[in-house]
Amino acid sequence: MKQQRYDVVIVGGGAAGLSGALALARARRSVLVIDAGEPRNAPASHVHNYLGRESTPPGELLAIGRGEAAGYGAEIVEGRVASAERLPGDGEPGFRVVTEDGRSVEARRLLVTTGLVDELPPVPGLAARWGREVLHCPYCHGHEVADRPIGVLATGPLAVHQALMWRQWSDDVTLFLHTGPEPTEEEYEQLAARGIAVVDGEVTGLEVADDRFTGVTLASGRVVPREALVVQARFTARSAVLESLGLEPVAQEMGGTVIGSYIPTDPTGATEVPGVWAAGNVTRLTEQVIGAAAAGLMAGGAVNGDLTTEDTRLAVAARRERGR
């Protein structure tokens, strides 16, 4: 860290954080990005649906973003933030950010873009194939497994919806009921109408040959060949830094089912704590990379606007003081 106090400290250097850093650095603000180096999409081979950067490897996209932000003066350092606290005083908001290795830095404003953690169902072998053949988002990975045999692992009420969705990319889809609820008669009719097979029994493991996923193993010992497996991960916001400031994550539901936790913000990313913004998956669980980048830009602009208001107030106060 080249200085002790910055206009803005950004916690998290993914698409949202770097986009915010780029906007703020271009606005001639002093910006520090502290990044733990744990991007959510690291297991994936490519980023999709990012206009102008389609199929870019995630690491390459981040390297480009770091270079762009640094080119306008943003400082980017590696580190894991342990906590943040409001500085004492009744005047302008200010914060102290402390890293796990004991470094500390002050900021006029904070932008937290720490993302989320995908909590996978407890099936042996899932984590090792995550982002490769074990998938969750059809818009992120559907095209890459189009026309292949796809399995959907049911762990909750949304599994039928998932199976029907993934049927758009392949006519060979199998729903494994696993630990999920029994489909209703209407759902069974929908699945049958779309040619989706339904298999009873718990999935106990994955079959892998030559470093390729080849199927699932049922408790009965039966192996069902598949080339991709769709799961419903639980999306848990990395909210520890925001919680240290008094913010609490709340549950997000989809179709009446809790799919994870997030930190609420207004449309610009402002939290309930004055001077603190959040952007990306920490506050919007289903956001894709391009959406996270857009949210970072929105938050960066809002932070700069807030600082401009504060700068003007301080300048007016100083002018009045000089005129006495």
Automatic annotation (TrEMBL):
Its catalytic activity? [thioredoxin]-dithiol + NADP(+) = [thioredoxin]-disulfide + NADPH + H(+)
Q: Look up keyword Oxidoreductase and say if it applies.
A: yes
User: Where would I find the FAD/NAD(P)-binding domain in this sequence?
Assistant: 6-296
tRNA processing recorded as keyword: no
| A Pfam family that the UniProt record links to this protein | Pyr_redox_2
What are this entry's molecular-function GO terms? thioredoxin-disulfide reductase (NADPH) activity
Q: Per its UniProt entry, which superkingdom is the organism in? A: Bacteria
Q: Which keywords, in A-to-Z order, does the entry hold?
A: Flavoprotein, Oxidoreductase
Q: What is this protein called?
A: FAD/NAD(P)-binding domain-containing protein
Which classification does the entry list for the species?
Bacteria, Bacillati, Actinomycetota, Actinomycetes, Kitasatosporales
